[in-house]
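User:
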Amino acid sequence: MKHSASNWITDILQQQDLPPVSDWLSDLRRKARDQANQLPLPRRKQEAWRYSRVDALLKQSFTPVVQPPNGSGLEMPQSLSPHVLVFVDGWFNPALSRISDLPQGMVLGSLREHLDDASVKAHLGSLANSGENLFSALNSALINDGLLLKTGTGTEIESPIEVFYLNSQAEQPLLTQPRNLILVEENSKLTLVEHFLPGMGSGYFHNATTEIHVREKARFYHYRIQDEATDAWHLSNIHLVQAASSHYHGITLSFGGKWARTEYKTRFAGEQAICDLRGLYLVGDQQLSDFHLDIHHDQPACHSREQFKGLLHGKGRAVFDGRILVERIAQLTDAQLTNDNLMLTRDAEVDTKPQLEIYADDVKCSHGTTVGQLDPQQLFYLRTRGIEEQQAIHMLCAGFAGEIIEHMHLPHLREQAGERLRRTLDRL
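Assistant: Predicted structure:
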């Protein structure tokens, strides 16, 4: 018997009274709504959800945010960047944002304000299939606002663009659903930093979908720092397509949330593209951090590097499910996938499953995973040098995590990540 998610979906969709939008977006919403009502509940029998139970999430009652909140009581986050965008409950807040002079041909701001843009009509929904799962369908069914970033050809910005996702205070748990569209045109180079911060509300569900197009010879640096409240639910679906000779450099740091899941779906649309994807998760009591990667090599001579590390303490749980598919046409592929986990307590748990599926015969591919505890010999060595045990543990954990953090080319982000790590280790 097919178990549909109709009751959960219906309860959410019946609460909404969406602001009017163009006919093409209404059609997209309607199709997604129909899919959501037909999709099955995520079950452990499904490979993608084998280790990630959603029973507790589906028992929650969330109210979708279908009107722009006023953001009262919130302050503009500290940032030295000339381009700072703030989204409150998934809606762009111009009063808390700062966007200085942009290069010619560049668009940066609210997706909702550019729904009649031809490029938005052509690309929104082109990568994210609403029928993939219940949550992606829900995002598409309630599309309202999100980030629009579109460069001109040859655009280069030295300062990073920083985006902050905040949550307002509400009497009931909220469902926030930013829908982001990023178009990095030919020969462009820029850095985007996304901050997911704990909000004033409690128990909210952040269900985001991001579509990224990186054109020929473009370089896109994309950093994501998820540090939400410990009673928050977080799901990010990231869809990426890369043209020939493009370079995507993405790093995700996952620190917060009760249940945090990040999905990357990447494919190549041209030869000699490079995808450098890394992540670090720090997981403690009553937390689950979950990463799913689907890297699809269907063009020749493309390179991908996926390196993810986890620090687990208390009764924290982590899931890593990474898959690289190399099609027969994708000769000269170079792909490497690693997942390393450091268990700081006996009660921590990790389920890790790196996968390689290769149909080409001229490739260079590898995958592997490790799960272990701190090396007693390394601790002993540091203790014999007069270093106290707690400080020695800090040093070894910092060295383990630093391999990911040091790949962030922005010094202030490295400092923030290092300080966040130190605060957690101090509490152990």
